[in-house]
Amino acid sequence: MTNVVELKVGLHCDECIKKILKAVKKIQDIETYNVDIELNKVIVTGNVTTEEVIKAIQKSGKTATTWEGDQTNS
């Protein structure tokens, strides 16, 4: 089953982004991933759970929290 996991992650510099992308790419069964630098948001789709994605990002030394209803459309 395909899930969409949206997480809030501190994307302060290129090195942070590289670490997070490297961690996300290692997750099995992902279909797509996207990083929104302006919103500090990582979106992963595939046969994954929110917990799996958070754990993978935390292994890279970064923190990730769920993206809960904070969304505003500009």
UniProtKB/TrEMBL annotation:
The keyword Cell cycle does not apply. Residues 2-65 form the HMA domain. The keyword Endoplasmic reticulum does not apply. Keywords: Metal-binding. It comes from the Eukaryota. Pfam families: HMA. PANTHER family: COPPER TRANSPORT PROTEIN ATOX1-RELATED, HEAVY METAL TRANSPORT_DETOXIFICATION SUPERFAMILY PROTEIN. This is HMA domain-containing protein. It comes from Hevea brasiliensis (Para rubber tree).
